[in-house]
Design a protein that fits this description.
Shape: elongated
Strand content: 25-35%
Number of helices: 7
Largest sheet: 5 strands, antiparallel
Order of helices and strands: HHEHEHEEHHEEEEEEEEHEE
Strand order of the largest sheet: 7-6-5-8-14
Radius of gyration: 24 Å
Oligomer: single chain
Structural class: alpha+beta
Mean pLDDT: 88
C-alpha cells in the first residue's frame, strides 16, 4: 500500500526496496506496525510519504515524539533523503537547531505571520526583533537606551552607548532611543584576570552555573544582569569555571547586535 498510481507491481516493489534501503528499514518490512518503536514508526511514515514521489513533502514536527539519539539520526537521514529525492520540504518545528541543520530557508512565525525570513545562519546571527532573538535562542536580549557618544557627523552608523543598568556598553548604532541589544554567547570572552584599566566593554561578573554540552560549555553569569557565554569545555576547565567564581567579560562593540 506504499506506492500507488501507474507503476507496475515490479516498479512498486523496486521503489519500496529503494526507500527501505535509504531509511534503513529493510528488517521492518514484514513486521506489524504495532511492534514498531517511535523512531521506526517515523521512518516508515517517511517512506510512505515519499513512495509516490511527491513534489512537496510536508512535515509537522516529525521528531517531536522520539528520544534525542533517534532525533539526531533522523535529522541526518532526512538531510540525506532531501539530497537523494530532491523534493521540496516544508517542515514545522519549534527547535531552531533543527532548522539550522536542515533548512535552506527559515521562516519564524509569530501570531500567524512571518516575523523574519532568510537563511538560517542569517536569521540566527541577525534577528530583526527581540521576539525572534528570544524564540531562536540567539543570545541574551537586553532592553536599554542608545545615546550618541559625540554630536552627529553625517549619516550612517555612529559610536554610541547602550545603557541597560547596571551595564553600559559601547556599541555601533544607526539610531538613538529605546532598543534591544543581543549578546551572543560566542561573542562574550571570559578571563580570570583582575579587572584593570579603562578598556571598554570589559566588566566583572560571577559564574552562576556551567552547563556542559559536549565540547562546548555555556557559562551562565551574573553581571548585574544575567548573561550567557559559550566557551570550549576545555577552556572552562582550564579557567576553573564553577559557581561563585569571579570572571572578567569582554565583548567587542561591533559584536553587539541592536534590534
Amino acid at each position: 500500500g506504499l506506492v500507488r498510481g501507474s507503476l507496475s507491481a515490479a516498479q512498486q516493489l523496486e521503489r519500496v526496496r529503494e526507500l527501505a534501503e535509504l531509511l534503513g528499514i529493510e528488517p521492518l518490512l514484514d513486521r506489524s506496525v504495532h511492534r514498531l518503536s517511535g523512531g521506526e514508526s517515523q521512518r516508515v511514515a517517511l517512506a510512505r510519504a515519499l513512495a509516490p514521489r511527491p513534489s512537496i513533502l510536508l512535515l509537522d514536527e516529525p521528531f517531536a515524539a522520539v528520544d534525542p539519539a533517534t532525533r539526531h539520526n533522523l535529522r541526518r537521514e532526512l538531510r540525506a533523503i532531501h539530497t537523494h529525492e530532491r523534493v521540496t520540504t516544508l517542515q514545522v518545528t519549534h527547535d531552531f537547531d533543527e532548522a539550522l541543520r536542515l533548512g535552506d530557508v527559515v521562516a519564524v512565525m509569530a501570531e500567524g505571520r512571518i516575523a523574519q525570513l532568510g537563511r538560517p545562519d542569517e536569521v540566527f546571527r541577525f534577528p530583526n526583533s527581540a521576539f525572534v532573538a528570544r524564540f531562536i535562542g540567539t543570545g541574551t536580549v537586553l532592553l536599554g537606551e542608545v545615546t550618541r557618544q559625540a554630536p552627529a557627523d553625517g549619516d550612517g552608523p555612529f559610536a554610541a552607548w547602550f545603557d541597560s543598568a547596571p551595564l553600559r556598553l559601547e556599541i555601533v548604532a544607526e539610531r538613538e532611543g529605546p532598543a534591544h541589544a543581543v549578546l551572543r554567547p560566542e561573542d562574550l570572552m571570559l578571563s580570570r584576570e583582575p579587572l584593570r584599566g579603562s578598556a571598554r566593554n570589559r566588566f566583572a561578573a560571577v559564574v552562576s552555573r556551567v552547563e556542559r554540552v559536549g565540547p562546548v560549555s555555556f557559562v551562565h553569569l551574573d553581571a548585574g544582569r544575567p548573561l550567557t557565554a559559550a566557551v570550549t569545555t576545555a577552556s572552562a576547565e582550564e579557567l576553573g569555571l564553577q559557581p561563585g567564581v569571579d570572571v572578567v567579560v569582554t565583548v567587542k562593540a561591533t559584536a553587539i547586535h541592536l534590534v
